[in-house]
Each structure stands twice: as C-alpha cells, then as structure tokens.
Specification:
Nucleotidyltransferase, domain 5; Purple Acid Phosphatase, chain A, domain 2; alpha/beta; six-stranded mixed β-sheet
C-alpha cells in the first residue's frame, strides 16, 4: 500500500472555471488522485437573445446586458459558463417557444448539461493522460440520471458510482445519491434506500481500516451538514438578524460510518458547511462550495501505508 495525495472537490455545478482549477490541482498540489464528489451540472440557462434587427442582449443576474460586439459576446459567454450557467443564443421567437414548451426546454437543458460534461471529460484526458494522475468523477443528487452514460463513456475518467474502486491498495466506495431534500432532486431517495446502496458496496470492501467512503451527503448532525431551513415555498426561514440553520445530512450515512469506521469520509452536498472532523476514527470532510464566484474549495489528503498522514482544506 503506497502513498496517495488526493485532491477532493465537489459541487462544481457547471462552473467551467472551477473545473479548470480542478484539473490544475494535480500540478498545484502534487496530487496523484483527483476526485469530484458530485453535483456536476449547472442550475439554469442564460439566453442570449437576438432581435429581428440583429442586435443582441441578455438578462443576466437580474440585469439587462446589451451586447455591442463579438468580443463582448465572447466575454459574456465565458463569464456565464464560469459561473456555472449555460449560455444559449436564441432568436426572440425561439425563446418564446422554449418558454411555452416545458418538454422541449428540459430536452435543451439536458443537451447543454451533457455537452459541458463531455467537454470536461475531454479536457481531463487532454491535460492528464499519461501523467499517472487518476481522475474520478461522480454525479450528485442534483445531476440527471442520463449523465451516468456520459461518465461511463470515458476511457480515461473513472466513474465510481456503486463500485469499489481500488487506489493503490485503498478501497473507495462512492454514491451521488442523497437523502430526500425539499427540491426532490433526481437522485434524492429515502434513507432506507440510501442505506441499502451503501451497505451493498461496503459488503465488498476487504479492509475497512484503509477504506474511503465517497458519499455525496454528509453524515447527519456532524456540523458538516448545516444549511438554511426553508419554508413550504422553499424560502429561507429567518429570525431577527439571522437565517435559521438546521442539519440536513443523512442519518443512514452517519449510521454506516459509525458502524464501519472507514479511514476517510468524503462528502459535499451542503455548500455552507465547509469543515473537517472525526466521527469515531473516521475523518469526515466537506470542502464546501463557492462555485458561482469561480472559487474552488477543496481538500488535499495525504495517505500512506494505510493511514491518514495529514489533510488541508484549500481555496483557490
């Protein structure tokens, strides 16, 4: 069992800038394993609208942006993509048709998500093939199920969902499924189902002492899962001067980490709860996420001879 330097990040939500930084982390931190723990895709399309006279504008971040030349258009497209959104050039008529056809809108949205993920996989291979760096990318609860097909199509990037992946003697199990959320995301499932998924993988692990649990939701009530409480309209609940925070992690993830006590738990899902702590002998980490600003939150973890040597939360 050798030395591993793992760089772990999660919840990039479509940010091109964060993904480029993720690929560069191999060189910056000297990591030989790069892992994304889920939530790969962005949350919205930003239309770039073309009027009948050929002039263009976009409604972006609540502001109407008039596009005056090609350079400005390219700059705006990059800014939108770096923030995790999907720019899409449309005529006013095409835009109106999408707004009135939900099925077509969903089809276009999925196509944009697939295309960006395909671009990321190609970039990872172009930059890192032949370097000895392993790249492991999993979907998260917000990601459409159809994206697993894209991840499986890569001959270079490892898609770890539901598998035991061996990393120089360390065994890692992974899932992007999560306990139910108020948003009913594509991979939200009841705790009982999540527990069953994890148990099925854990039963195949030979040595828990050096195992890694790459599980998208953090363990419940560990301080790594505190998020704003929301009301029935999905708006944050507030008290005078503060937002009410509550634990939203997974009960089953906590139960199974306490049961099996792996070496390391890698989690994400809750952007606001960046941190690391021990749950028994298991170090659990949630690096958090600031993807809208192109800031990559991550963690560098050094493993040697089946043991955790050190870790560091990173911002870049």
């Amino acid at each position: 069992m050798g030395k591993l330097r793992v760089f772990f990040a999660t919840d990039l939500h479509g940010s091109d800038k964060c993904f480029r930084k993720f690929i560069n982390a191999a060189k910056v931190y000297g990591a030989n394993v790069l892992i994304i723990g889920g939530d790969l895709t962005g949350k919205a399309i930003v239309p770039i609208l073309v009027r009948d006279d050929g002039t263009e504008f976009a409604d972006y971040l609540g502001q109407k942006v008039e596009i005056k030349n090609k350079e400005q258009e390219e700059s705006l497209i990059k800014e939108i993509s770096d923030s995790g959104y999907y720019p899409l050039k449309l005529t006013l008529k095409e835009h109106e048709e999408l707004l009135t056809n939900k099925e077509k809108l969903n089809e276009v949205f999925l196509k944009l998500m697939r295309e960006r993920l395909e671009q990321w996989l190609r970039l990872a291979e172009e930059r890192l093939k032949g370097t000895g760096v392993k790249v492991i990318i999993n979907a998260g609860n917000d990601d459409a199920l159809e994206l697993d097909e894209v991840l499986e199509s890569s001959d270079f990037v490892i898609h770890p969902e539901g598998k035991v992946v061996e990393l120089d003697g360390y065994e890692m199990i992974s899932t992007g499924y999560a306990n139910m959320t108020p948003w009913h995301a594509p991979r939200d499932i009841p705790e009982e189902e999540l527990e069953k998924k994890i148990e099925e993988m854990a039963s195949k692990v030979r040595n828990m002492q050096s195992a890694i649990f790459n599980i998208h939701p953090p363990p419940y009530n560990t301080g790594l899962d505190m998020a704003p409480k929301v009301d029935e309209n999905l708006r944050p609940v507030t008290l005078p001067g503060t937002v009410v925070m509550v634990p939203v992690g997974s009960v089953s993830v906590r139960k199974l980490i306490e049961k099996y006590q792996p070496l390391l738990g890698l989690h994400g899902h809750v952007h606001e709860s960046r941190g690391a702590k021990y749950l028994g002998r298991t170090l659990i980490i949630n690096p958090g996420s600031d993807y809208p600003y192109g800031i990559l939150r991550g963690a560098v973890i050094n493993l040697e001879d089946g043991k955790l040597k050190s870790y560091m939360l990173t911002t870049g």
